[in-house]
Amino acid sequence: MLSGSGLALVGSMVAATLAFAMGLVWLSDRSQKAVGWIAMALALGGIAAALSAAPDVVPSLRSGLIADIAIALCLGVMWHGFAVFEHRQPKLWATLGGALLWCVLAFVPTLVGHHTPLVVMQAAMVTAYAWAVAAGLIHGGREEPLPARWAAATLMIFHGGLALMRIPMTYFYDVSPQDFAVEDSLFALEGTLFAACVAIAMLALATQRASARYRKAAETDSLTGIANRHMFMRHVDPMVRRATDKGVLILLDLDHFKVINDMYGHVQGDLALIAFADTIKGEVSEPDQLGRIEGKQFALFMPDVTLDIGIHVAEYLRRKTEAVRLDINDMRIPLTMSAGVAAVADTGPDLDALRAAAEIALRDSKSGGRNRVTPFSKVLKVRELARKGGLKAVS
After folding, report:
1. Residue 224: inside a domain, yes or no?
2. Is the N or C terminus of the chain more exposed, i.e. has fewer CB atoms within 10 Å?
3. pLDDT, one tens digit for every residue, the chain (395 residues)
4. Strands 289-292 and 337-343
């Protein structure tokens, strides 16, 4: 088995290699600031390991002091990197606090030359930083549940717990200098593996976040922030297929949108769409699905309601929209919307048929003067067929 110095030297080379690789990743995408901080932490860890492998390199200072300070800096910078990943604003004193505290305590006369208290302080520092990173990862998982979060948090908890074990081992067991050497070798090996895992964890987190953002961009309407047509259809189609006597689709269309666009410009038209979408979005909750399926047309599918409830919901949304005012050139322009409502119970569990029925009802709302809610019925279907020439006479 390699000695503690040998393992520390191997660890320094591993950390330096990982720091170089992470640095290249950061240089290729400067927006990945957390990756850059972890590269810096690994570089500091490599320096600490190299100094631990050759404690006589700086004979003018106490043996190992610079290495211990570098370890404390490495821990603080690692915590800083994960805090940046969580979009927090880490405090400089928290990043440098461990290293500064070590600088002070290392020169306390009662601690000079005593291995045990210094090991205990270092173990406590490792645990504090590692568990602080784990807490941040777990807390951030509530809003951004990336799979790698839980693996990274587990790694930090394990590493901190392992470091904490050194305290009772140091105080309550009669450890000889030879045993200290074996212990240092084992912890040097664990530190090397930990450095590799930290690099992998940060790269996995960054990759998963980027993937989630690309996926969201592909599935979300960029203007309004709700599901686009593709995403809406993909979610709603299986829900409609499973439906029996419940399930309602509401098509909502912003009235006079072309007039707003033509009179006030596309920017104001976009603001009208955003205000309209926000009004609807604020009233939608799971498991209902909302999406923008065309320029000014939105769709709301409610799987657990019947037609009469769907009509009441559409009417409520119409009144909410009617209360919205768009501020344009010191004028307050009212918004209104028309809606068509169709139920699975009338069309069967087929999304195309359900949407066609809702479109028939929506056209009736538009032709009837706008700012109305119209439910689909067989009478409307007959009228639509007659309009298209499918029937010669309409009663």
Report:
1. no
2. C
3. 556 567 777 888 899 999 999 999 999 999 999 999 999 999 999 988 888 776 544 444 454 677 888 899 999 999 999 999 999 999 999 999 989 988 887 677 666 556 677 778 888 999 999 999 999 999 999 989 999 999 999 999 999 999 888 777 766 555 555 555 555 667 777 888 999 999 999 999 999 999 998 988 888 998 999 999 999 999 999 999 998 889 999 999 999 998 888 888 888 999 999 999 999 999 998 899 999 998 899 999 999 999 999 999 999 999 999 999 988 777 888 899 999 999 999 889 999 999 999 999 999 999 888 999 999 986 566 566 556 665 443 32
4. unpaired
150 with 206, same domain: the answer is: yes
Tokens of 288: 């209902």
Give the CB-side neighbour count of residue 75, counting CA atoms within 13 A: 29
Residue 241 lies in a domain: yes
Instruction: Return d(Cα 205, Cα 151) in angstroms, integer.
Output: 10
Which secondary-structure segment (H or E) carries 245? Answer: none
Whether residues 215 and 353 share a domain: the answer is no
Count structural domains, the chain: 2
In a domain, 319, yes or no: yes
